[in-house]
Amino acid sequence: MSASLIDRQPPRLPVQLDHPPGRAIPLDARTAMLQAALQPARVPREAALALAREAVEHTLPPGCPVLSRGDAAHALWLVASGQVALGTMSQGRLTQQTRRVEPGQWLDVASAWLNGRYLEDACTQSDVLLWSFPLEAVRALCIEHPLLAEGLITVLAVRVRDLTEGTLGLMQKDAEARCATWLLQHAELRPGREGAVVVLRERKRAIASQLAVTPETFSRVLRQLREKQIIEVAGYTVRVLQLDALRRIAGD
Known about the structure:
This protein is of the alpha+beta class. 38% of the residues lie in helices and 23% in strands.
């Protein structure tokens, strides 16, 4: 059986459904949080309340897998409390993080609509309360409440715009800034140690293609950063020695 919360046979989820004191959120508060999560669209309380009633609550401890790449998507997911990291897991831990989802933010609002599978792994970074919304129930509510459908479309549109802006912003930087940004995006912090580590899981040619530079340019920038003692390179492992200096180069 998959280690994720979504089983390949969807109806029964292997998660904790108990509600410790102070964790379960009252219906009114749940409705208000959903209205905020669907902004900038103005979803009426009646529609948000209907969606709130469909929420399935899941309480999870830190370090618990939530979604796994390749698992079938049958629901929309929202983080009600705590933090969840998205990225790539290996041997039970998140080795590459792409983003962190905070309370009131959607963990995944797209995959289920495509009848697809999750593209990233997700893992809790603290005690977490999650809400899942079965797709079939959401689809029925969108027919009954068109403004709810508009709210979900707006959430998806904002996400697409943010991704496009991020891509354009990266392309407008010079080669050194692009490489620094890429290293920061793929850096793995090591508890108890300074700096961070980046494992090059793709060939340098493939990474250079993502950054719209030649492989020779990518290698040259890594060499320059090494000469500045900002990074160390050993085989396919890059150790970031000066995170702040790398952020300055990236323009963050």
